[in-house]
Design goal:
Shape: globular
Order of helices and strands: HH
Strand content: under 5%
């Protein structure tokens, strides 16, 4: 049994690279689109047309915008 108080709370499980996602080549989801628009607005950035974006590409763009805004840390 693990004592939860001794676990390092800053570590997270390894995330799979979006390029390796089975569904990564599917179109961007509604929630991804909405979150990208919110992040871009907060970062003061214009988004390109999102219609051709895949789930994997959207995830990478979300990561970039989270870094720019300080969110998602």
């Amino acid at each position: 049994m693990t004592d939860r108080d001794t676990l390092d709370q800053t570590t997270t499980p390894a995330a799979k690279d979006p390029e390796d996602w089975t569904t990564g080549d599917e179109p961007i989801t509604g929630p991804q689109r909405s979150y990208l628009e919110t992040l871009a607005q907060q970062a003061g950035q214009e988004l390109p047309d999102l219609d051709g974006l895949t789930k994997a590409e959207a995830s990478k763009r979300i990561d970039e915008l989270q870094a720019a805004t300080g969110r998602g840390q």
